[in-house]
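help with these tokens:
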Amino acid sequence: MINFTVEDQEGNRQEHEAPEDMGLSLMEILKAYEYPVLATCGGMALCATCHVEILEGKDGLGDATDPELDQLENLPEYYPTSRLACQIRIGEILDGAVVKLRGEDVV
């Protein structure tokens, strides 16, 4: 199991854990914890409604893919540490990370 922290739109932080051996994405885990992540495209990097900002632990995640960058660059608020949760696989590199919800459905 890996442990990570999610910061919601109000700045509240909550620690969570997720299995690293099931091939799940961060988007799927956020939805399982009932965070308001629309994920309209179902994890295909086509809608950016699973936009998150990696506040801590971004170094091990690698660079965003071209399709991911295409979506992120069209957002009204895009940060250097922005990622699409659907494109981040749960694994050891996410252990200890802090993720802030930024999807367009989060108000």
